[in-house]
Structure formats: C-alpha cells, structure tokens
Amino acid sequence: MMLNKKCAKKVLEEMIALFPNAEPELNFKNRYQLLVAVLLSAQTTDIAVNKVTPALFEAYPNPASLAKASPEELMPYLQTIGLYRNKAKYLHLCANQLMERHQGEIPSNRKDLEALAGVGRKTTNVVLSVGFGIPAFAVDTHIHRICLHHKIVDPGASVRQVENRVMEVVDKDQWIQAHQSLILFGRRICHPRNPECHNYPQLFTCQEEE
User: Fold this and answer.
1) Is 122 noted as a catalytic residue in this protein?
2) What pTM did the predictor assign?
3) What separation in angstroms does the CA of 81 have from each of 42, 46, 86, 195, 205?
4) Which of 69, 112, 172, 177 pairs with 126 at a CA distance of 20 to 30 A?
C-alpha cells in the first residue's frame, strides 16, 4: 500500500539527506554536451558514456559539426555502448534539427526538446533541470525502483506516475537535487539485489507510526 503524502515526503527527504550534494556523474562542459551525454546514456551506464564522449566531443565540438557527420562516421565513437547504431542515427538527426530549428542552440522548453530525435521525457527533464536550472524531475531506472521498494507509489506504477508522485510530495525547489540524490541512493544503498536500506532506520520510522 502506498504511503500517505506526509510519510512519502519524509522518506524521500531522508534519502536526499543521505546524499545532499549529489551531482551528475555524466561528464559535460555545456548544454550541448549534456544533451548528447544524456541521450547516449539510455540503457547503458554513465561510466560507459564518459569513456566515449571525450573523443566524440573533440571530433564534434558543437551541433554544427555533428550535423555534418553521417551516422556511419559516428558509430566508431559509440560502439562500446548499448544501441550504438540507433544512437548514432539519433545524434545525426538531432544535430540537424538543432541547426534547422534552433540555430544550433539547445532549446530551453519541453515542447522543443521533446521534438528532437532520440530525446524523450527523461532526457528533457535532465536538460531542463541540470542545463537550465528549471525545476523538473527525471525518473531513471534507479528512481523508479526505489520508489516502488519504499512504497512512494503503488505497486506497478509507471515511470510517469513516479515522476508525478515525487513532484507532488517534494517541494518544487528540491526537485533538481532530489533527482541527483535519489540516483545515488539507488546505486549505493537500495540495490536491485540485496538492498541495504535496513541499515538506515530513519527511512522506516514514519511507516511504523502509521
């Protein structure tokens, strides 16, 4: 059974407090690099992405140079990460869209970002929050898992339902930090196998009081 709003808020804030200064683990220097890195991170690890992006960004330092490259030219840079053929195609299309529609600039609104090739809601939320400081909350596999595990949402809740629920119970000015902190909580404590959440009793006090 899902926790009530008060308890869900307390549990999430305790998770955030465990990693209050968590930052993105993807390496990037500007919004263009952030967009590309997040797009590439789908179904692969940040560590794997960080290994391929230095050479990619050196060869293609901006959307204009990336737009001129064919997917076949991009593939060798990406071949160590998952779905690299599709990602090369998406990068090529996305870069051309950025040039044609936005003069090579990364758009700062949801509609334009989600219209880019390979860019879904999660990528959009990360770019808005990390790249522009606009309150948004991105849900990755770690966040989806821990919210189910800790009854923040009902069993079987979708990614979008998790996003809506967290934004409902956590203060808006915490959304950006919540995303980073909850990812680390999922990676370091609430593992897919053998979660260690029982070592942190503060996560369960509100549930016991109900």
Assistant:
1) yes
2) 0.92
3) 9, 10, 11, 27, 41
4) 69
- CA-CA-CA-CA torsion for 53, 134, 175, 82, nearest 10 degrees? -20
- Per the listing, tokens 């709003």 go with 5
Contact by Cβ (8 Å): 44, 81: yes
From 87, 140, 154, 172, active-site residue:
140
Q: Is 140 a catalytic residue?
A: yes
Which residue, 103, 97, 195, 177, is CA-closest to 137? 177
Pick the catalytic residue from 122, 151, 171, 173.
122
Residue with tokens 């090579």: 104
The one-letter code for the residue type at 63 is P
